[in-house]
Amino acid sequence: MARLLLDSTVLIDLLRGRRAVARVLAERRSGDVPYTSAVNVEEIVRGMRPSESAKVGLLFDGLRIVPIGREVAEQAGRWRREHAASGVTLSQADCLVAAAARSVHATLATANVKDFPMPEVRIELWPSDR
């Protein structure tokens, strides 16, 4: 049984019924535990279409939501600082999402692998057919 944290790219593709994500989901084991983070909840709610409100609620009801507490926030801050020292700018949101995944020992499923260069986080590419 694997833990899988779904990034906003994956959540959006699920909401919009995109085939690439449906294919990846069909290939997953049924015992996987799906997560997302509080950051992803904010991103989805901020960008959702009015007609998607009920669908979004159902989606979040089926996921475990990783809160952003001190440990997650500190890890995200360390990654941003360390990468900035080597000339790489990472977004606050991406660092928080990656730290949330790490905190629950989950693989991070995303269509934007390049946004998560942290070697401590397992990343899984979920292609999008946008």
List keywords for this structure.
130 residues; alpha/beta; Rossmann fold; five-stranded parallel sheet; 6 helices; 5 strands
Q: How would you characterize this protein structure?
A:
- This protein has one domain: 3-Layer(aba) Sandwich (Rossmann fold), CATH 3.40.50.
- The model has no long low-confidence stretch (mean pLDDT 93).
- The protein has helices at residues 8-15, 19-27, 38-47, 53-61, 70-85, 92-103; strands at 3-6, 33-37, 64-66, 107-110, 123-125.
- The protein contains six helices and five strands, in the order βααβααβααββ.
Are there runs of 5+ residues with pLDDT below 50, and where? none
Shape: globular
CATH topology: Rossmann fold
**Tally the helices: what do you get?**
6
Proportion of residues in helical segments: 40-55%
User: How is the largest sheet built, in terms of strand order?
Assistant: 3-2-1-4-5
Q: What is the H-and-E element order? A: EHHEHHEHHEE
Number of domains: 1
Short description:
This protein has 130 residues and is α/β, with parallel strands linked by helices.
Describe how the helices and strands are arranged.
Blueprint: E1 3-6, H1 8-15, H2 19-27, E2 33-37, H3 38-47, H4 53-61, E3 64-66, H5 70-85, H6 92-103, E4 107-110, E5 123-125
Parallel strand pairs: 1-2, 1-4, 2-3, 4-5
